Amino acid sequence: MKILVTGGLGFIGSHTVVELVNAGYDPVIVDDLSNSDPKILDQLTKILGFTPTFHKLDLCDEAGVKSLALAEPEIGGIIHFAAFKAVGESVKKPMKYYRNNFYSLINLLEAYYGKAINFVFSSSCTVYGQPEKLPVTEDAPVQPAQSPYGNTKQIAEEILVDMVNSGSDYKVISLRYFNPVGAHESALIGELPIGVPQNLVPFITQTAIGKREKITVFGDDYNTPDGSCIRDYIHVVDLAKAHVAALRLAEKDDFKGYDVFNLGTGNGSSVLEVIHAFESTTGEKLNYEIGPRREGDVEQVWGDVTKSSTKLGWTAQLGIGEMMSSAWAWEKYIAQNPFN
């Protein structure tokens, strides 16, 4: 089956392309290269032994998306990653996020409307805001979003539910990620931030390699054991495999409509714990300082992944050590093989 992977040259998308091929699917990549590098297609070729089909396209281009649907009529599934995703930037530039994240989704849904499509949506634990109870389950009430980015994920899920309830032929699974980190075991693909990283682990590895002077820990006065924010970090390869599991579930005759799953390890790690885990795993000492809280950050969140284990048939296999060591191997690869 052909699977359209939007944002397929990005961090999670590229790893998912590899796992789709491993599972026997034929991925078709769409990416506008606004937050990815075209060289990742070459890296995927090295891993896979062939070059996946690739279309350069901005999904906000309605006519372009309609042309894509005509050019790729055999698509049976869509994994929709393509979105802007930096919490801090979304607070400063909300309209940029609303325009991109909604137009791209709506154009994609309309272009393939009327066909039987298994649609896997890249959602986020940000839909929970600051949960009332931890670990947070899929049935937890959706709290007011802490950022425009989080709000785009909440509203996108509502759009998908409304579409399914209207009687469309789509089967939809929303995957609420926690914090993806790490890199492929080959060290040929990994997280490749453009400009200053917005996420913790690439900032850690760039500091360790000398690209950045120091890491700022945004706040040490939260109500957590060491005062820094707590997140559920998950290895990107585990996360990629979950998308294959989601497609398999949607393909079953008895799956109807819409469902949602948490994707995480079920355990929380603080920012300072991740820093110390990197140091102990790699032997590299990090230069870090404590700074003020960052607007839009949630204090602590980690997920209950029971439903993913029982219904999706998926559990995370890789721990914080593999996350840090693979991210470091990727950073060292980039140093020897520059992308920019």
Automatic annotation (TrEMBL):
Q: Could you tell me the EC number(s) of this protein?
A: 5.1.3.2
* Keyword vocabulary terms for this entry: Carbohydrate metabolism, Isomerase, NAD
Q: Which GO terms describe its cellular component?
A: cytosol
Domain of life, source organism: Bacteria
Q: Which terms does the UniProt entry file under GO BP?
A: galactose metabolic process
Cofactor names from the entry are:
NAD(+)
| Residues of the NAD(P)-binding domain | 4-325
User: So, what pathway does this thing act in?
Assistant: Carbohydrate metabolism; galactose metabolism
* Catalyzed reactions: UDP-alpha-D-glucose = UDP-alpha-D-galactose
Query: MF terms per GO, please?
Result: UDP-glucose 4-epimerase activity
Q: Which residues form the signal peptide?
A: none
In the record, the note on similarity to other proteins reads: Belongs to the NAD(P)-dependent epimerase/dehydratase family.
Q: How does it assemble?
A: Homodimer.
Name of the protein in its database record? UDP-glucose 4-epimerase
Lineage at the top is: Bacteria, Pseudomonadati, Bacteroidota, Sphingobacteriia, Sphingobacteriales
